User: Fold this.
Amino acid sequence: MIKTKLRNVYRNKKLSDLSVYGFGQAFNLVTPILVVPFIISICGIENYGKIGVALSLAFFLIVFIDYGSEIISVREISLQRDDKVTVAEIFSTTQLAKTMMLLLIIGFCSILFFTIPYFRDEFLLYIFTLSILIGQVVNPVWFLQGVENYKLITVVNVISKLLYLTFVFLFIREEGDYIFVNLYWGLGAIIANVGMLIYLNLNYKFKLLNKNFVSAKKYIVQNFQIFTSQLFTSLQMYLPIMLIGWLGSNVLAGQYKVVEQIIGIFRTYILLSFNFLYPKICYGIEESYKRTVRYWAVSNGINALFVFVCLVVIAIFRVEIINYFTKLEVVKITEVLLLALLIPAIQALQIPLKQLLLAMNRNSVYVRISFLQTLLILLFVSVSLVYSDLFAVIWAIIISELIISFAYLYFLILYRKK
Assistant:
């Protein structure tokens, strides 16, 4: 009787966590739907392309800031959550390592932006974009994921996005204001994340920054492999638009960004589902492999079905959706979108395979697969841009995603536990 009641309480808590977390992430997904048409209408599709390229560069550099914390530190916190001393050490070491990486990245980028003509021409845009990196350093979501405190994750996400929306709608008034859009993203993140860090310090009594540089250096060395894999993953996500902007044109980058913004909603949802399920799968796979795999299959199967249904709806109303974002090149962008919907359909199956492989601690295999995918995207997208054709770019991404999906499946079958 007592066991049944405890099980019901646990299930109700998980349902509550999922509902709260889902609300916060739904807000993340709605934000670009609200803000992108406004930015394009004021700043134009070409400047929106510039914003997108700079934003993608920032998201790529975030990998250096996080340095695998969203995988390794989340896993460590999840496994050691009952040991407050160990949890405090993990928290402090991770924060110090992230701060050290930020200083290195800002120094490197300052030189890069001064010397490379492409960046020098948009110097203020790229300098302001670095605020996003500062916001990521003080981002405690990785810790909250480890302890599975999804209510606080939702709070910090909603506040940061509300601030971003407020800044954009209040202060973006003319075409030249495009240089401030990414700054407002960064400011929203900084304010929300610093507030949450202060709250954590009051409640958990953590030292936000210790001076144990030896531990931080050890953390950086030990996590190099997983950092490398995350670096490749980030390149896979953000390299296409950066290549389009650098090798093609800002107009082409703007058109791609509109399509990417729509399909990116599904990728974001899938990755957020990854983050929600990952700690439980890491914890459970050590206790009961078969039971955890069943939970993994059912949970991700439901997610994939939901994604497929939503993609069908997007395909049906694709013209109306593109018209909502922009009135320029509607026919072309609509056709590109229809093809691009295959990408999140594949990712809805591929990312769960990656999740299980990581939970099995097969990091070296993950690194090799990520490296292969990065090379494929770099090669295929670069070749496709010879024709300055978005359709060729989308096909390049689709082919690479399919190849990598089969690679994940092959290694999971190879390493499955009997």
